[in-house]
Amino acid sequence: MVADRPVLPASRPGCYLRHREGGFVAHITASEGAFSLVRGLTASVPMAYGADQDTADTAEWVVSELLGNSVRACGDHVPLVIEVYATRRGLQVNVHDPAADLPPHRSTVALDSDNAESGRGLGLLDMLTPGWASAPSPVGKQIRCHVVGSK
Description:
By secondary structure, this protein is of the alpha+beta class.
């Protein structure tokens, strides 16, 4: 173990965690418990590498949105890989899912629409992580987002 790394929880069934430079990688089977663990790590681990609270909070929201989108696209208990790590300009968030044939679709729903029950997430993602992209991944596809630091 490297002395300056934050301690990650022990891996357990459906959740394998490992360090990566500046952050962590989580291989999970989608479940509320795994999502809660990954959100918590996203809120805390990057701060050990110099991220500020606002940037970590934004990354936590981004992770939550992308995990929810993956489950909506792929179904319950889907295998996912989540990478969160510090960069010189903020935090990188990558979420891999097996649905290579289901790219994300930007919604035409207005963010301030009172009638919409869903569809705002990718619009908010556009605002918080401009330039996010979908790319092929060994798992299927990955959504890559960069949360710019507020420092």
